[in-house]
Amino acid sequence: MTRSLPSTAGLLITTVALAGAATAAPAASVSAADAPRHAPVQKALDQAVADGGVPGMVAEVRDRRGRWFGSAGVADTRTGRKRQPHERFRIGSATKPFTATVVLQLAAEGKLSLDDTVDKWLPGLVKGDNNDGGTITIRHLLNHTSGIFNYGNDKEEFAKLSGPAWLEHRYDTYTPERLVKIGLRNPRSFETPGDGFVYSNTGYILAGMIVEKVTGKTLADEISRRIVRPLGLTGTYLPGKETKIRGPHPRHYSTLFATEADAKVHDVTDQSASTGWAAGGMVSTVGDLHLFTGALLRGKLLPPAQQREMFTMVKTGIKLPDGTWKDTWITDTTYGTGVFSWELSCGAQVWGIGGAITGGFSFAMGTRDAKRMIVTNMNIDRYGRHDSLDTVKTVLQAEFCPSGSQTRNT
């Protein structure tokens, strides 16, 4: 039987004026008197460490009262070093909205259109197994409706990037072209582009390649020029060939997709980011993710037309031949262009970005107006009984669901 990635693993990894709110100073710390309001979040963090197999987890809430930071566990299981607000960590697919924002800014400048086909910019690259770059548009790439197979689920590559084999291949370098070819050697997820949603890192690799073709610059440079510097992000970057994280950071841990509760945990901090690149290769901090996600939700990075495009949502699944619906990603979500919404168990809806990578889960979610937001990171990825996505959802619900209402009323 072909072993496939858990659905959560798919998360793996300008001329626009930027007004004052986008570069606002960090919110003031919440007073001690307000700390009890966040006791449910702190309890969820503590439980993640005590019962969920998480070495260390942090969460930072920002709302009209200011800023609250909570942590549990450690940044380093060997030394016992505690987690800190300024740490940098790999953010996995929270990279995607950075790539999507650059593409949408290029569209606003008239340098490309989301209706452009892949073939217009990367002629002849997407072909074979019923893939046709002449029918797949940039929009299809960005909202995961292209149908192109996710290279991370390729049987041969997954064998290299999970289990003990990962330790042997952790420093392997992948070019974007190689990642695309891996995806294209597999059957399409559905026949016609636009007829379904299946999460595909391959699509974002293609989007990153298009950015470089249009601009003549590296994607890393464009992200820095258009997003990082204007927003004043101090710990965010897209690595090149380097395998270590710059600056202060927690150790990153993984069971390498083993699902047993007692699975061996490995230190995976140092690794090649080239397997994620435009789809999941970036590094950031809780503070930077607050600034970036807040700017996205408030429309500070894009003109109105492109902002509407970013938040034009599609359901995250496909309709089967018998007419029934099949979820293909996180249940109760919709996806836009690099951003998504998630309906929590109590019925509350949150918006933002998230990502998983070998070594961690990172989410930045909030109300649609960004007046209340939380950023969280755990320095491990786990599946099975201690599923990291369930842990994230528990923390989100601790913040956004009224006390005692963790399940939806019926």
TrEMBL record:
InterPro entries: AmpC-like, Beta-lactam-related, Beta-lactam/transpept-like
Pfam families given in the database record: Beta-lactamase
Signal sequence segment: 1-19
Keyword terms of this UniProt record: Signal
Domain Beta-lactamase-related residues, every copy: 42-383
Taxonomic source organism: Nonomuraea aridisoli
Protein name: Alkaline D-peptidase
